[in-house]
Amino acid sequence: MYEIKRIAEDFIVEEIMPNGETIGVNDEFSFDEKSRGNELVCVLVKRNWDTHLAIREIANRLHGSPKRVGFAGMKDKAALTAQRISISGAKKEDVERILIKDIKLIPLYYSSERVKLGDLNGNSFTIKVYAKKMKKAARVPNYFGEQRFGTTRPITHLVGREIIRENPERAVKIYLAKVFKGEKDETKEARKRLAKGYDFKKALDYFPRHLKFERTMIAHLAEYPGDYIGALRVLPKFLKLMFVHAYQSYLFNKYLDKVINKKKKYEDGPLFGYDTKLTTKEEQEILDDEGVSLSEFLVDCMPEMSSPGMKRALFIEPKDFKVLEHKKDYYMLRFSLPKGAYATTVIEHLFS
User: In this predicted model, what pLDDT tens digit does every residue of 62-120 receive, in sequence order?
Assistant: First the structure.
């Protein structure tokens, strides 16, 4: 048994940039006064903030769209994290005036290039694990962590599955109305009430204000009844793509389970897409079990959601692994992982 994330400072995530440098949560930075460009690159340090919501709040304070904000990767919500972001058309002075609880924005320089998804080498983690014993650090199954699917509401892969099946109505209704016990009572009641008749005009009166993405979709459906594709399209691009990516991740995890159970020696596995070339019988078994074909990843009703697929390593080895401190009831660890790998998966392997 083990426990993590009692407080945000127990789980520190620091982004490793493409040049190999790490952005520390406590680092000091100076602004490059000679820099030029339309993109203002900043360090974002956040505590207990969802990345999507942090970006949305920053955009609101600048009276703009979240689409103006570029970032390299998602960071854990229940954590203290540091990463680069870019803000199109923002001025250093305007960003310096932003005051948001548990968020720090530090302008670095102007650039002509936006920070894009995947524009990082990986992440460095400093994690306090409350446990008595730890296994030896070694190769770890490269599962996607629960964050990929939603910690409180693990639905992103369910929405993605319906998008792949070209059932946008079902995808929207899962996103808006599927209830999970970890949510606030007010939120659960709102979702249940909506599911009784899907009266989207009335839902605007009672749906909680903090559910901003849901309310945006509901407002669209209130104005354009039946336009479920349009309701999905009002979401930020990175959130829409996350649905299909989460479904691919779900299938990858199932494939990795099968590889481990059969004791196969494969080195990589598929994030299934329309261009995937099947190379093992286990890959076909996963598709058969799920009742999905590769061609379905070419989404005719929403072409922007289509995915060609790619390969992903089945196992990873944490780099620069160190036990910083070991007491009777906890371990303080530091290690780094390549982009797309999950520290929670490493912790599960070491302490379960």
Answer: 999 988 999 999 999 999 999 999 999 999 999 999 999 999 999 999 999 999 989 99
What digits encode the pLDDT tens for the residues 291-317?
999 999 999 999 999 999 999 999 999
- Residue 50, CA distances (Å) to 57, 123, 138, 159, 179 in order: 11, 17, 30, 19, 19
Q: What is the spatial distance between Cα 159 and Cα 250, in angstroms, rounded to a whole number?
A: 12
CATH number for region 1-138+318-352: 3.30.2350.20
**Dist. CA 216–CA 88, nearest whole Å:** 23
Closest CA to 52 of 187, 248, 219, 210: 210
Q: Which residues share a beta bridge with 333?
A: 127, 323
Give residue 136's pLDDT band: very low, low, confident or very high (50, 70, 90): confident
> 297 burial class (0-12, 13-18, 19+ CB within 10 angstroms)?
buried
Cα(130)–Cα(327) distance, integer angstroms:
9
The values of phi and psi at residue 335, to 5°, are: -165, 165
Specify the 3-state DSSP secondary structure of 16. Answer: strand
Q: What's the pTM?
A: 0.86
- Domain ranges, ordered by start, for the chain: 1-138+318-352, 143-313
Catalytic residue chosen out of the listed positions 10, 32, 50, 76: 76
Predicted confidence at residue 159, as pLDDT, reads: 97
Tell me, what amino acid is at 173? Answer: K
Verify whether residue 76 is a known catalytic residue.
yes
> End-to-end CA distance of the chain, in Å?
6
- Topology of domain 143-313, CATH: Hypothetical Protein Yqey; Chain: A; domain1 (1.10.1510)
Please tell me if the domain spanning 1-138+318-352 has the same topology as the one spanning 143-313: no
What pLDDT score does 182 carry? 85
Q: Where are the alpha helices (DSSP H) in the chain?
A: 51-61, 92-96, 156-164, 168-177, 185-195, 200-206, 212-223, 228-233, 237-261, 281-290, 343-351
Contact 220, 196 (CB under 8 A): no
Neighbour tally for 52: CB within 10 Å = 19
Q: pLDDT band for 124, please (50, 70, 90 cuts).
A: very high
